[in-house]
Amino acid sequence: MSSNLTSSASIPLAEFRSALTQATASVCSLHHFSAGRRQRVSAKPASNMKTPKRILPLVEEGLVDQVMRQLMSGKEATVYVVRCGEEIRCAKVYKDANERSFHQAVAYQEGRRVKNSRQARAMEKGSRYGRKMAEEVWQNAEVDALYRLAAAGVRVPTPYICFEGVLLMELLTDADGNAAPRLNDVPLTHELALDYHARLLRQVVLMLLAGVIHGDLSEYNILVDADGPVIIDLPQAVDAAGSSVAASMLERDVTALANFFSTVAPELAGSQYGNEIWALYEAGLLSVDYPLTGRVAAPTAPADVGAVLREIELAAEETEEREEERRRRQTETAL
């Protein structure tokens, strides 16, 4: 699947529309969500819903016919439900860098490739052009990760196009045809918590085998559709082979899952699935069907103090961002 579809700037509009049609048909074959289920999402737009400025270019190019309502707002983007012909999809509008609460830490960008050395130098200097390139890399990282992970069998939303800083993708729905809720909003039994945890560990393993680590996995960026958990929000995805903190990122993602589910399934507390998965990956033994135990032998080698300090710093940043996200959600609920 061609990553050239992430931008329309370098090809004529006619070719761009043709490529979009072909890509949509191709990517849709990777998922087996029924069209009927998607169409049960209410087609009634919110009263006096004005088309957001950032989506206007997609309307003008015929990629979006109508903005129906806002679906959710997060630390990096706002998502809208949109109508594209007879399909109901969602449009993720990335916030400008100065509006995001999620910081583009060097750890997340490490290992990412840019088109040429001029762009790399501009990004390092922080010039206006460099900042623009950094934004494009940040946004395209999610599109690239979605294509890559969908091809690997990971449960992610189907991406269609990223155009002018807006990602057009599949709208996930629950069994009743409503927009899929976040995992955080789904009532869990002990049995369901263990089931979802096992399913998500499998997704994490599939991601790692595809060379991708989420980097910010939590109950807030996992949706639950009619078929179970689906992983979303990947602009900060980490290159497993190119990042020096890949192991700690993976361990943090997996620990976040265990901590969330352990409130209902306490036996998951203190499990070491992240360390186990990484050790198997480094040893070349990891497979999606490998029986995980959640236990690892105590390390005998001296600790890497620098790596520990970097992990502490990243954990502090994440804690601060999660707390900010929690306060923002509480404020939205109160309103």
Please specify the SSE layout and strand pairing.
Layout: H1 13-28, H2 35-39, H3 56-60, E1 66-73, E2 77-84, E3 87-94, H4 106-109, H5 117-125, H6 128-151, E4 159-163, E5 166-170, H7 190-209, E6 212-213, E7 222-225, E8 228-231, E9 238-239, H8 246-261, H9 273-282, H10 305-334
Helix pairs in contact: 5-6, 7-8, 8-9
Could you describe the 3D structure shown?
The chain has 335 residues and is of the alpha+beta class. It has 2 domains: 3-170, Phosphorylase Kinase, domain 1; 183-334, Orthogonal Bundle (Transferase(Phosphotransferase), domain 1), CATH 1.10.510.10. The chain is 41% helix and 14% strand. It is built from 10 helices and 9 strands. The strands form 3 sheets. It has a 5-stranded antiparallel β-sheet. The protein has a two-stranded antiparallel ribbon with strand order 6-9. A two-stranded antiparallel ribbon has the order 7-8. Helix 5 crosses helix 6 (128-151), helix 7 packs antiparallel against helix 8 (246-261) and helix 8 runs antiparallel to helix 9 (273-282). The longest helix has 30 residues, at 305-334. It starts with 12 loop residues before the first helix and ends with a helix.
Write out the CATH superfamily name of the largest domain. Answer: Phosphorylase Kinase, domain 1
Biggest sheet features: 5 strands, antiparallel
Q: Class of the largest domain, according to the CATH hierarchy?
A: Alpha Beta
- Residue runs with pLDDT of under 50 for 5 or more positions: 1-14, 19-39
Which percent range describes the beta-strand content? 5-15%
**Strand-pairing-aware structural class:** alpha+beta
Major β-sheet strand ordering: 1-2-3-5-4
Number of helices: 10
Estimate the helix proportion, in percent.
Answer: 40-55%
Q: How many strands appear in the DSSP assignment?
A: 9
Instruction: State the order of secondary-structure elements, H for helix, E for strand.
Output: HHHEEEHHHEEHEEEEHHH
Oligomer: single chain
- The CATH topology of the largest domain turns out to be Phosphorylase Kinase, domain 1
Q: What's the number of structural domains?
A: 2
Using the CA coordinates, give the radius of gyration.
20 Å
Measure the end-to-end span: 43 Å
Can you give the mean pLDDT? 79
Shape: globular
The CATH level-2 architecture of the largest domain is identified as 2-Layer Sandwich
